[in-house]
Amino acid sequence: xxxxxxxxxxxxxxxxxxxxxxxxxxxxxxxxxxxxxxxxxxxxxxxxxxxxxxxxxxxxxxxxxxxxxxxxxxxxxxxxxxxxxxxxxxxxxxxxxxxxxxxxxxxxxxxxxxxxxxxxxxxxxxxxxxxxxxxxxxxxxxxxxxxxxxxxxxxxxxxxxxxxxxxxxxxxxxxxxxxxxxxxxxxxxxxxxxxxxxxxxxxxxxxxxxxxxxxxxxxxxxxxxxxxxxxxxxxxxxxxxxxxxxxxxxxxxxxxxxxxxxxxxxxxxxxxxxxxxxxxxxxxxxxxxxxxxxxxx
Length: 297
What we know:
This protein is of the alpha/beta class. Helix content is 40%, strand content 18%. Strand 1 and strand 2 (11-15) form a beta hairpin. Helix 4 packs across helix 7 (214-225) and helix 5 (181-192) packs across helix 6 (199-211). The longest helix is centred in the middle third of the chain and has 20 residues, at 152-171. Mean pLDDT is 90; it is low at 1-9. One of its GO terms (molecular function) is hydrolase activity.
């Protein structure tokens, strides 16, 4: 089965080769010389890039989309809730919607892992067309050892809770997690954000989490536990790359970003004091500034 796409204004429905329909948002001129592909995080969707979008240079083609099992895309089919599958989805989407010209890839959290998996599974695409990469609050390994920023016994308990939560989601039969948004927001705020949190940002992320398909995101959590793509980062050497992380990130903490930077010694390493995991919300201007630099290289 070949990948197909149906236009619907600036929103599109892209069908992958295994028949999964993904929601895509495309903006900017079709004949632009560079296309920026924005790849979102676990349990979020393409709307996480809303704050960044208006601050990007004009004349750039921007593609953002919802991973399978997230946002307005269809749930992941059995056995396809993996980071490797997300990399293949990304390769197909690029082939259909950005078949020529320069590419800049920006991935947040699981989106960054998707970009790394793309380098592993489709190195010829990355080597021939990608002129810039932003790895935002993400990791190349050790996602099976999360302590959520807690130390000692509390950290070990947090790790067990994290794994239990993933397994529960994996078995969930409903289409959405039936938690009222006001009850979910305090946990989202504590887990995902650093200092000086805006209520609107917490609301936006909570809405994205509650839109995600539980069984799909549970499967992706299992896949992220096995994610080790340190070797794949070699494909990105020589490509202008920026690695960004907040010093209050509980999900992919600073030492995860430093491992990436060790594998990519020429990358720009940016540490944001006081910021948590949600850099597209918490450090919008700084993220947009660095994406703009990559686009202008």
